[in-house]
Design brief:
The protein has 369 residues and is of the alpha+beta class. The chain is built from nine helices and ten strands. The protein has a four-stranded antiparallel β-sheet, covered by helices on one side. The chain is elongated and about 115 Å long. About 5% of the residues have low confidence. One of its GO terms (molecular function) is zinc ion binding.
């Protein structure tokens, strides 16, 4: 019996016992191309691959030839894993039986690296962070199946932990431990919107597009989409200008942020996405004209991250058109905010009362002269 026949027989007898979660698909010593094909299912969802092992002419002095395939793991990850495995063979196993060792190594690697299911997303996040990013902005915790991510913009940061579930991407990432030195209103916005983006990746909309059913909906990976949003939003906040006064909304130094919500320099965010100084927003809403339906945002262009995309008809399956960023012209979206719900008649009445008081004061001053 040749060494190849011996090893194939050994794999046939022992593989499914010594390599956890493995299943032999083919195992043949027939000439001229003996080969072994084994499925490795680390879990029932997405950490699965198929290993095909072929024997070179000078085996075992030469390393067994490895081909990896998977319907769920990315090609780039499989290429990297193949290279790592080949290097391991060259260093430790030449001249010895190799097949069971290769299969055990592959199974152990996939088990120890659960984040392999989002390999491409992690690589893209590294690229988006750029060469100037520090090591602590993207940390992988394989044992916890978690990613610690920090987005930075100027002197501001937003930090969170993204936990990848076992059945990813069937279920979305869980975003935890968010912290920031941005204003509280922006922390709430980042938390809420990133979770909503992740949710929409895995849950069908209440109203499907015409001609589609819920059965047509397929979950998509949510890690990159959610963290990319956090990255871009955090990068942009410190550069945004108040549409009323034209000054930067956030102070350059986070220590100078106004925390008293009654002060004019307190930061407010409205549904169109723009940031305002509270004092500027109050003044703009309290002065005429008071158009029917309420005032529109005076910003020079629409915001890239407008809530209008979600609250005003942009969700998948809605009959209303999606509101997209505009390269020119005013924002034009109605100003709306939980704390600033004032109808036109009330605004006009308040303005008239303010003007009446001003006239009375002027008459008193004139009389005293």
């Amino acid at each position: 019996m040749s060494i190849i026949e011996f090893e194939i027989d050994e794999v046939r007898k022992l593989c499914e016992n010594v390599v956890p979660n493995s299943k032999i698909i083919a195992c043949t010593a027939a000439a001229p191309a003996p080969f072994i094909r084994v499925d490795i299912h680390e879990n029932q969802f997405y950490r699965q691959l198929t290993a095909c092992l072929r024997f070179p002419n000078d085996y075992p002095k030469e390393a067994v030839l490895i081909e990896l395939k998977s319907k769920t793991l990315s090609d780039k990850f499989l290429q990297g894993l193949t290279s790592v495995c080949e290097k391991q063979l060259q260093q430790e196993f030449l001249g010895k039986p190799q097949c069971l060792k290769v299969l055990k190594f592959l199974q152990q690697y996939v088990q120890d690296n659960p984040l392999c299911v989002c390999f491409d997303e992690i690589q893209q996040l590294r690229k988006d962070l750029g060469p100037e990013a520090t090591a602590d902005q993207l940390k992988l915790k394989q044992k916890a199946s978690a990613i610690h991510f920090t987005a930075k913009g100027g002197e501001y940061y937003y930090r969170l932990k993204a936990v990848v579930p076992d059945d990813y991407p069937q279920h979305c990432v869980e975003l935890q431990q968010q912290e920031t030195n941005l204003p509280a209103i922006l922390l709430r916005y980042l938390n809420g919107q990133s979770r909503e983006i992740a949710r929409q990746c895995v849950e069908p909309p209440l109203r499907m597009p015409k001609g589609k059913t819920i059965a047509d909906f397929q979950p998509v990976p949510s890690l990159y989409r959610a963290l990319k949003f956090c990255l871009e939003a955090t990068r942009g906040f410190h550069m945004e200008e108040c549409p009323i006064c034209g000054q930067l909304v956030l102070p350059r130094n986070p220590n100078d942020l106004e925390k008293d919500e009654n002060k004019d320099s307190y930061v407010e965010r409205v549904y169109c996405g723009h940031l305002f100084h509270q004092g500027c927003l109050k003044l703009y809403l309290s002065e005429p004209p008071f158009p029917k339906g309420g005032k529109l945002c005076p910003a020079k262009r629409r915001h890239l991250r407008s809530d209008a995309t979600y609250y005003m008809g942009g969700m998948q399956g809605s009959k209303m058109p999606k509101i997209l960023p505009d390269e020119g012209g005013a924002c034009g979206i109605r100003l709306a905010h939980d704390r600033w719900v004032v109808n036109v008649k009330v605004a006009e009445s308040r303005w008239a009362q303010k003007q009446a008081r001003q006239r009375e004061l002027e008459e008193v001053v004139d009389f005293l002269k």
